[in-house]
Amino acid sequence: MKLTISLAQIDIAYGNPDENFAKIEPLVKQAAAAGADVVVFPEMWNTGYDLSRFDKIADENGERTRQLLSELAKKYQLIVHGGSVAIKHDGAFYNTTYIFGRDGKLLTQYEKVHLFGLMHEDEFLAAGHEEDHFQIKGVDATSVICYDIRFPEWLRTLSLDNSRIIFVPAEWPTSRIPQWRRLLAARAIENQSFVVAVNRVGSDPDNPFGGHSGVYNPMGDEILTLGDQPQLKTITIDTTETDEVRGFMPVFEDRRPELYR
Ligand SMILES: O=C(O)CCC(=O)C(=O)O
């Protein structure tokens, strides 16, 4: 299946949801004009890492985000992968992904499983504990968030359900961009999947963020890379490449799960 994917690499206004929400529609429109089947945003784009103000700025039950993404998916007739946003529900804060189909219906949602202590997420957020699986034009896909890519066992778990694409929204600091690119390539190679990763650019009071959003094929080649400036880029991938790679190198069949822990 051929899939056209737009990566929306944006700067995020620190702690300013109104400014950030206003950025989304023009990018969805641009992706639709480029013929995209899906547009992807970075991690926690509504607030950035303004964690100590989440009681004031996190999206209550994700309602504002869900309403906007649903409307835009329907209006522009494409899948909107909403990166992730800071939300509040049941008295706790979560780093949450929402993905909407062309009909405006929620395809899946995911709460970040591995909280990033170096940026104090574990002090302010509750961790998710559920897998997410969805389909794009009949192709199985899954999605994680940023620091999750350092846990190959989690991405493997998510990939076991026939997934062919792993989406990765992120706020990944500039100093570790070389690791970002190597980790994404490794996750693509070992899971014989496409990896579509969207990082933010710009900076917050603690970190500059290095962009280099990209798409990796199932051999781990970086087939699209964005620089370190805000931009939207679009690429068409052929997901049957995953069948070819899994055919000549049957890694999934050769697993020995009885030996692993
Ligand atoms: O793992 C890293 O180096 C960066 C992770 C990160 O920035 C995040 O999870 O938000």
Element layout with pairings:
Blueprint: E1 2-9, H1 17-33, E2 38-40, H2 54-57, E3 59-60, H3 63-76, E4 79-81, E5 85-89, E6 92-100, E7 106-111, H4 121-124, E8 134-136, E9 139-143, H5 152-159, E10 165-170, H6 177-191, E11 194-199, E12 201-203, E13 208-210, E14 214-216, E15 222-225, E16 231-238, H7 241-248
Residues 116, 119, 146-147, 150, 171-173, 176 line the site of 2-oxoglutaric acid.
Essential attributes:
261 residues, Nitrilase/N-carbamoyl-D-aminoacid amidohydrolase, 2-oxoglutaramate amidase, 2-oxoglutaramate amidase activity, single chain, 27% helix, binds 2-oxoglutaric acid, 6-stranded mixed sheet, C-N_Hydrolase_sf, EC 3.5.1.111, C-N_Hydrolase, alpha/beta
In words, what does this structure look like?
Belongs to the carbon-nitrogen hydrolase superfamily. NIT1/NIT2 family. The chain contains seven helices and 16 strands. The chain is α/β, with parallel strands linked by helices and 261 residues long. The chain has one domain (2-259): 4-Layer Sandwich (Nitrilase/N-carbamoyl-D-aminoacid amidohydrolase). A hairpin with a 5-residue loop joins strand 14 and strand 15. The protein binds 2-oxoglutaric acid. The site of 2-oxoglutaric acid (AKG) has 9 residues, from loops.
